[in-house]
Request: fold
Amino acid sequence: MLSRPMLTVHEVADLLKVKESTVRAWIHDNSLRAVKFGRDWRVAYKDLEAFTNARANRAPDAVEERRDRGIEDRA
Reply:
C-alpha cells in the first residue's frame, strides 16, 4: 500500500528545479526509479529520496555530526 501518492515527472522537475526532460533522461538511463502508468511516469517519494541521497556530497550522518560538534555548514 502506498503511504503517499506518487509524483509526476512535472512535480519531480518542479521540486528539484530542473527541466522535465532532465527527469525523463534520468528515468530513461535508469538513474531514477519510476513506474509507467499508460503513457505517464510516476516516481515514489522514497525513490526520489534515494536518488538525491545517492548524489549528495556527504552522508546525512556527517551533517548531523558536524552540527552536534557546533560546526556550521556554509550554504
